[in-house]
Amino acid sequence: MSTRVYTLPVEQTRWQVAGGGETVFTWEYDEGRDKLLNLYEKGKSKQWNSRERIDWSTPVDLDNPIGGPEAYVPIYGSDIWERMGQQDRNQLFHHMASWQFSQFLHGEQGALICAAKIVQTVPDIDSKFYAATQVVDEARHVETYSRFLHEKLELAYPINQHLKALLDDVVGDSRWDMTYLGMQVLIEGLALAAFGLIRDIAENPLARAVNAYVMEDEARHVAFGRLALRDFYPQLTEKERNEREEFCVEACYLMRDRFLAEELWQNLGLPVDECLGFVRNSEAQLQFRSLLFTRIVPTLKDVGLFGAKVRRAFADMEVLGYGDVDLDTVMADDERAAGEIDAARRQQVDDAIAVATA
């Protein structure tokens, strides 16, 4: 993606992370966990080409790129919003979509790097197999979001400081399970919830399809993290589990604060403190930020990282109740939604052919 579309100097998105870690070979090729191998088979069969599956000719209105309602804007209902004219509101819609999709793009590059690292460092052959399919998935996601930003939005934002801090920790940690935990469970779990919101409210079919198709892949990635860590964490000492729970608590607060979007308000010349005050305290935004944890809370519970510190943090964020979410059902819903978009597009093509040949 050309750097000319960035709202700020591109150097702010470029940094190097020193990451150690052992490269693990295994000579046990004939054994593997059935569930992980089944996920690997699904990962192979579900590969798709963004140039073919997505209709890139679909127009995008820069005054409202995803075709969402005004209530979707974080400062909707505030005094700032009420003072804005329609032109300024349209600009906000454009920049907000660009900021969101930019963070999706940067997060997907982080996932690409982490998936490649998992192939190198994870000790089990079945995990290496699946992680290899994820590397391809993540490259496709980077390609897809980059194209959407460059060709349709023509505007991009550098990486958010909170996402950058979390990626720095995840990529820099030499332990393979921390790469799983930080990326597969936390970053991708939160991204899934954010993708899902756009998929469900978007009236623009391109914005909806991009997120739905990426979600279909990401649901498998989170399942991969669950399966691998569920087997590994019971083997850890209490001290080791406590260390990972502390990491989860810190990471969850970072991710929650990422959606305050401080740099968005600053770049648009809006009163930053007033915007942040509204976003932090409005009922709609509190509900939105809680929805971001619908995948993370039950996953941490499932893998056994649900001690007192984690529960206190989730209670503070008012998301503890998501611990009872059925993740398998949610994953099936993600696959169903992507299938429905495919079916609708095929029907449109069939209808167009019928009209042309009538």
What does this protein structure show overall?
- The protein has 358 residues and is mainly alpha-helical.
- It has one domain (34-357): Ferritin, core subunit, four-helix bundle (Ferritin, Up-down Bundle), CATH 1.20.1260.
- Helices cover 69% and strands 0% of the residues.
- The protein contains 15 helices and no strands.
- The protein has helices at residues 34-45, 50-53, 79-83, 86-121, 125-153, 161-172, 176-201, 205-232, 238-258, 262-267, 272-281, 283-291, 296-303, 308-316, 327-357.
- Helix 1 (34-45) packs parallel to helix 5 and helix 4 (86-121) packs antiparallel against helix 5.
- The radius of gyration is 21 Å and the shape is globular.
